[in-house]
Amino acid sequence: MEITTPLINNRYFLAKADMKSSALYLVNGLAICALWFIFRICLFGYFGIVMIKALPGLVRDIEAYVVVSLVSGYTVGYGLQLAWGYKIFRGAYKLIAKKKGS
Fold first, then answer.
1. What's the pTM?
2. Half-sphere exposure of 57 (CA within 13 A, CB side)
3. Are 45 and 78 in contact (CB under 8 A)?
């Protein structure tokens, strides 16, 4: 899931170098959007489906507080991925719409 981290770090350095209007900044942002969607929304969602399918076996094999921790941790984590994804996609849309308008 952390495949987007180097791109996010790169975005920070590009912003600090005052390169927000460069093509590299735009490409980096679009790569963040694509990888965020693939890995942090789709793949993380798929892992949730796998976890739900395995839940009956987990309930039998491990203690209840561990199952509750796993499910609640996943739910909060996926909610955060969706919230940050919304902000990232909204920012990318604004940037692309601004580029088309100018």
1. 0.84
2. 5
3. yes
Tens digits of residue pLDDT in 29-71:
999 999 999 999 999 999 999 999 999 988 888 998 999 999 9
- Domain residue spans in the chain? 2-101
- Angle at which helix 23-35 crosses helix 5-16, to 10 degrees, equals 160
Distance of alpha carbon 68 from alpha carbon 50, whole angstroms: 16
In sequence order, which residues have a C-beta less than 8 Å from that of residue 14 and are 6 or more positions away?
20, 22, 24, 25, 28
